[in-house]
Amino acid sequence: MHCLTYSGAKFLQQSLGYAEDNIHYPKGRNSFFSRDYFHRIATIDFNIRLQKWLANHNHGLALFHPYFNKSPDHNYRKAMTAVFDGNKWLEPD
Prior knowledge:
Helices cover about 40% and strands about 5% of the residues. It is mainly alpha-helical and about 90 residues long. It has three domains: about 1-30, no CATH class; about 35-60; about 65-93, no CATH class.
């Protein structure tokens, strides 16, 4: 598996003018690979199969945000789909 590094993300921003919000790369120092690699792959596989099924039945998917895409609104620490219930943040998986 290959991932963009922090240095690669900075290069895209500084040298090629990419917006930080459009660059996806692992931002934490903990090992996401060992923690949930297979779960992420299963999530992506499910999305691919779902979209193929929808296309074969003349339907579409207007929006898909996997839990591992973090929101710039929360300094990339919470999922784009996180909601606050008044007491704590909930992140659907």
